[in-house]
Every structure is written in structure tokens, then in C-alpha cells.
Amino acid sequence: MSNPSYWKVFCQWQRDNTVALPEHISLSELNRFAARYRLARAFNGIDADGYADDTVDAYGALLKVFLAYSALEQFHKAVPARPKQHLSERWADWATSPAASLRESDAIIQFLIKTVRNERLRDKLIAFQHGKHSNVLIVATALRHAVAHGFMSVHPEGTSPKVSKFFCQQMSRMLLSISDRAFIDLLESLSIDFGPG
């Protein structure tokens, strides 16, 4: 199983440490984060009869994004931002690398703009589409809503499943990377020694 980096170090620190976690951090929520992170990392797709392989692969990639977003969302709940902010704002600076590549899949972005009900989120998606910002977490949030509310397909606006799969793979890699990095930052803030190398 693929835990967040240094998860075992954190668990050992918990066992050895007599000092409690800071009051705003929930150990039970952190455990849920680790479980969701493990599932998202371990998830390799779905098995479905009667569908083309590309379609099955694309749906698997889409579900992996959903799972990866859920892990980051759980970390955000376990270790709330101070001051309070949405996760898309909290890690905006860490979520820019795939922006140019994702904009090439304009049909998917356009589909998300059409299906998102939250006007503020829609405006941020439009700004992303036009290159006014490169915060991919805005796109991830919209995609999460589209999956959760049953609007998302692997053929949005006529997109091929291969394009959808590539789009989603970039998103899930980014989301898992942010989760892992945020967890490492937490450990550093607690002055946990990672040990040699």
C-alpha cells in the first residue's frame, strides 16, 4: 500500500510522543486522509464488461481524480487552513504545472463551465480557460462536483476517451502530489524528525 510519505514516521511519532497534536488538528481525520490517499494511489481503474477499453480506462482515470480530490479534501478537513479558506485557494501556488496542458482540452473545460451550478466557481473556470490564472484546483473542484452530481462523462462535448483519460491522469497526479506535500509540510511544522536519508 502506498501511504503518504513518512506516514510510518508520523505513526511512530504519535506512539512515542507525550505531547498532543495542536488543538486544530484532528488525528481521526488525519487517519481518514491516509486511508483515502492510499485508496487513490492504489486505484488502477475499473473492470466493466460491454465497454470499449478506452472508455473503461477513461472512467477509471476519472474516478481516480475523484478519489484523489477526496483525499486532499480530507487533509484540508483534518488540518484546517488558518485563516479559513477553500482548498483551491490554500494550495493554488502548488497547482499550476498542468494548466497549459489542460487548457488544450478546451472541450472538457467548456463542458465543466456549462455544468457547474455555482456561479463563483463557473467564473473562476472561465478565467482559467482564458489564461487569467493557472490554478488547476479550480478545475479539479469543478470536475469533482460534476462527478459527484452525475454530470460528468468521458465524452464531454465530443471529447475522445483518450483525451479525457490524459486530462484526468494529469489531475490525479497533481492532487496526490499536493496531498503528499501538504502532509510533509505538516510533519515539518510539528518538528518531526524524518530520520536518515
Chain-wise SSE layout:
Blueprint: H1 7-16, H2 27-42, H3 53-78, H4 87-90, H5 99-103, H6 106-115, H7 119-129, H8 136-148, H9 161-189
Helix pairs in contact: 2-3, 3-8, 3-9, 6-7, 6-8, 7-8
Describe the structure.
The protein has 197 residues and is an all-alpha fold. It has one domain. Helix content is 63%, strand content 0%. It contains nine helices and no strands. The chain has helices at residues 7-16, 27-42, 53-78, 87-90, 99-103, 106-115, 119-129, 136-148, 161-189. α2 runs antiparallel to α3 and α6 (106-115) packs antiparallel against α7 (119-129). It is globular. The two termini are 21 Å apart. The mean pLDDT is 93.
Structural key phrases:
197 residues, mainly alpha, 63% helix
The total tally of domains equals 1
Unreliable stretches covering 5 or more consecutive residues: none
Number of helices: 9
Structural class by secondary-structure content: mainly alpha
Fraction of residues in H or I helices: 55-70%
Give the overall pLDDT as a whole number: 93
Biggest sheet, open or closed, and with what strands and sense?
none
* Beta-strand segment tally: 0
Terminus-to-terminus distance: 21 Å
